[in-house]
Amino acid sequence: MTPVMGSSLAACVFGTTLNSPILTAAGTSGFGAELSAFGDLRELGAVTVKSLAHFEHHGNPGPRVWPVHGAMLNAVGLSGPGIERWKREYLPALRSSRATVIVSIWGRSNDDYARAASELAAVAEDLTALEINVSCPNTERAGEMFGHDPEMTGRVVRSVVKEIDLALSVKLSPNTDRYLDVAQAALSGGARTLVVANTYLAQALNPRTGRGVLGSAIGGGLSGRSIFPLTLRMVQEVRERFPEVEIIGSGGVNGVQSVLDLLRCGADAVSIGTLNFVDPRLVFAIARELRSYADRSNVGSVAELQARFQHARGCD
Ligand SMILES: Cc1cc2nc3c(=O)[nH]c(=O)nc-3n(C[C@H](O)[C@H](O)[C@H](O)COP(=O)(O)O)c2cc1C
Fold first, then answer.
1. Of the residues 22, 28, 73, 201, which should be mutated to test ligand 1's pocket, given the most ligand atoms within 8 Å of the CB?
2. Domain 11-308 belongs in CATH node 3.20.20.70
């Protein structure tokens, strides 16, 4: 655990103790230490680096994000510099910030994921975990996502395990009724943590043109406040099925109450995404407010907090 000013609220994830259960969500706090302009990254449990591939990728044409019904639609399309350039251009600032770092990876094939992991193995000592994003389009079987197919997910995780000795999380897709089977395959393949979950496939039309608002004609992923009840339900279901596994809740967190709700339903940590676009100071404010709440309740860890809720796992 990196020491920070003031007290901390310990969260046990990835076989280590994080300062806080509040993490940034992949793709919403940049590739490096960009958020450090707004707060001390050591106050967060971890920073999750936007999904990287072993190759540079330009992503989708604009517009890539759009506000919609208390939420946000995005189709950024996984643009990124590629891992080797990321190591040169972004990792040094993250090192200096002394943030706890999770790197998210994506690919179009098993080999892509394996190569991403092997390129990161060289800097594994700078990382706390690798998040495998299986919720992105897969071109091996056009139009499908790895994360909609348990076998494909299991294969991806096994390819990554061979290349890197680091705690692995898998980010589930909420867009399939098979996500519990996908989760099982991820865990059997060697993942220790489940991120629940990615964005919901969605569309919004421009009333003037009748066309989709985003550059990507097919639409994008819905995130933000409106999806919170969906996240809560999914976390609850995953927790019930897998009582012992580590869960990071992701989707619609908008303040301390939503964090507490997720912890109550069995999340060990939560990640904050869309809120970083609303105001990049909020993630720090929520981490601080949560610590004050824990101090007032005289608890020092998420586990104690959950015990206070009188059920270390699951919902009332
Ligand atoms: C603009 C944008 C970019 C995103 N990029 C990624 C990404 O690269 N990899 C990933 O796994 N998730 C990505 N996500 C999903 C978030 O990490 C998060 O899981 C999702 O937005 C739900 O959380 P939220 O409601 O707090 O935003 C992105 C979300 C947004 C809004």
1. 28
2. yes
CA distance 222 to 63: 15
Which residue's CA is the nearest one to ligand 1's atom 29? Answer: 27
**pLDDT surpassing 50 at residue 312:** no
On the question of pLDDT at 287 being above 60, the answer is yes
Mean pLDDT for 220-229 is 96
Distance CA 100, CA 85 (A): 20
User: Is residue 144's pLDDT more than 90?
Assistant: no
Report how far residue 17's alpha carbon sits from residue 303's, in angstroms, rounded to the nearest whole number: 11
Q: Count of H helices and E strands in the chain?
A: 10, 16
265 is catalytic: no
Dist. CA 84 → ligand 1 center (Å) = 22
As for ligand 1, residues whose beta carbon falls within 6 Å of it are: 25-28, 50-51, 65, 72, 74, 76, 78, 104, 133, 171, 198-199, 223-224, 227, 250-253, 272-274
Across 85-105, average pLDDT: 98
pTM of the model: 0.95
Q: Percent of the chain, pLDDT > 90?
A: 88
Q: Where are the domains of the chain?
A: 11-308
